[in-house]
Amino acid sequence: MFRISKVKAPALQIPQERLESGFEPSALDKFCVTDEWSGDLANGLFQLGTLSEQLHGLAGGECGLLTLLRCYDAADRISILELLENASSSASSFCFSTHIVTGPGERQPLVCIGESSGFGEHNNGRMSGVFIFPRMPVETSGH
Questions:
Q1: Which residues in 87-110 are b (16+ Cβ under 10 Å) and which e?
Q2: Residue 138's pLDDT is what?
Q3: Residues 110, 100 contacting (CB under 8 angstroms)
Q4: Is the pTM of this model over 0.85?
């Protein structure tokens, strides 16, 4: 899944009463963990949270786009790069899903939801978002 939207208002308008329907955020913890990230388009560096840094197998919490892309399934890298390049040209919302290749025959599912903003005469823009890491084993010998 690779999606980008240049619409200024969210495409999905959820009524407030639906948001207060009694969903327990802790229920989400049973199925996934999340971590925030941000990117500075002026210097091309991404700042990952501690969990994201660990699960991506990166040290230091800050990395360039190509370093981040090398962590992902090779079949998805070009699509993710095109999506992020498109989002870096104007304010956008985007999402993608892929796998982090953690070792031979080992993969961690990943969903990324983010947005780009802050474009102007004196600003090169920023990206920010959340990584969602599903708590599920991944079979690498089939689908």
A1: bbeeebbbbbbbbbbeeeeebbbb
A2: 62
A3: yes
A4: no
